[in-house]
């Protein structure tokens, strides 16, 4: 890749905040490699119009399955702008599901976690049809999506409700996640989580439970979800005897960390290689 192209990609990624990602990503979507995988769009994992996922199917599957939940403050987001994520791992043999889920104000906590559980159950049951192995199932997410992924790992309630369990997960990867974010003051978040101090909504509350191995990554320059969320959550998980790897990236912000998974931007952090190593080691 030329230096000029690399600078262009960096500028485009810096344009997008949590609400602006949909603007920046399509500008370099055409630069993402198309070879090595196929896309099967809008597979229904439930009855709602938002119960849809896009499946990135590798030409040479390794059997590993990754279910990914994007961020957006539980209020916005679309699987349509995550080709960069699907390509990143499908070209390495991973079957990738990028999941849409219901959003506020249509729903509130815990509906989006319940949707996540349904998507995991769907992929567990259907993975073999697309070259995946249900015994090699990982979940991941960025920001609000990391919240969903980790809640599925530490609070068995949601997966058990759909006939699954946290031990079905080989591992959990959280990227810039809010795991211990009380009190909340934003009116929308207060409404979403049933008050400003509802401890039952926090992943850290359930960290003492047996959980799948986790990789938790965060940028130290994150001004939207502070890296203290990852530090505190990881400490509590480790104290309970769970296996956790923590990756902190100096000077990296909330969006920059997930965009470093995109083709052309992977030298900005080691996250891409960290995730592949974590998946391989688990």
Task: Report a brief summary of the structure.
By secondary structure, this protein is an alpha/beta fold. The chain is built from 10 helices and 8 strands.
Task: Using brief descriptors, characterize the structure shown.
282 residues; alpha/beta; Rossmann fold; eight-stranded mixed beta sheet; 34% helix
How would you describe this structure to a colleague?
The chain has ten helices and eight strands. It has 282 residues and is an alpha/beta fold. The chain has one domain: Rossmann fold, CATH 3.40.50. The protein has an eight-stranded mixed β-sheet with strand order 1-2-4-3-5-6-7-8, sandwiched between helices. Helix 8 (228-239) links the parallel strand 7 (214-219) and strand 8. The radius of gyration is 17 Å and the shape is globular. The chain starts with a helix and ends with a helix. The relative contact order is 0.14. Mean pLDDT is 92; it is low at 1-19.
Layout of helices and strands:
Elements: H1 3-15, H2 21-29, E1 37-44, E2 52-58, E3 65-69, H3 83-90, E4 95-99, H4 111-126, E5 137-142, H5 144-154, H6 157-160, E6 171-175, H7 187-192, E7 214-219, H8 228-239, E8 244-249, H9 254-259, H10 271-281
Parallel strand pairs: 3-4, 3-5, 5-6, 6-7, 7-8
Antiparallel strand pairs: 1-2, 2-4
Helix pairs in contact: 1-2, 4-5
């Amino acid at each position: 890749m030329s230096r000029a192209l690399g600078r262009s990609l960096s500028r485009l990624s810096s344009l997008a905040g949590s609400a602006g990602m949909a603007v920046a990503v399509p500008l370099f979507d055409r630069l993402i490699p198309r070879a090595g995988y196929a896309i099967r769009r809008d597979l229904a994992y439930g009855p709602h119009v938002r119960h849809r996922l896009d499946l990135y199917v590798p030409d040479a599957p390794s059997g590993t399955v990754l279910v990914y939940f994007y961020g957006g403050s539980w209020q916005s987001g679309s699987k349509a702008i995550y080709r960069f994520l699907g390509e990143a791992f499908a070209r390495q043999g991973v079957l990738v599901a990028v999941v849409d889920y219901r959003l506020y104000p249509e729903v509130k906590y815990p509906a989006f976690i319940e949707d996540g559980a349904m998507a995991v159950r769907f992929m567990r049951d259907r993975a073999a049809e697309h070259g995946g192995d249900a015994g090699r199932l990982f979940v991941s997410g960025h920001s609000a999506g990391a919240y969903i992924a980790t809640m599925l790992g530490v609070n068995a309630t949601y997966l058990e409700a759909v006939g699954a369990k946290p031990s079905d997960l080989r591992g959990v990867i959280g990227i810039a996640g809010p795991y211990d974010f009380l009190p909340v003051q934003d009116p929308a978040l207060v409404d979403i989580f049933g008050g400003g101090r509802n401890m039952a909504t926090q992943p850290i509350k359930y960290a003492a439970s047996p959980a799948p191995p986790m990789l938790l990554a965060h940028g130290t320059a994150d001004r939207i979800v502070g890296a203290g969320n990852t530090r505190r959550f990881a400490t509590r998980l480790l104290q309970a005897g769970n296996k956790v790897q923590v990756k902190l990236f100096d000077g990296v912000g909330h969006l920059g960390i997930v965009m470093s998974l995109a083709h052309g931007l992977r030298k900005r952090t080691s996250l891409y290689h960290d995730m592949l190593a974590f998946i391989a080691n688990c």
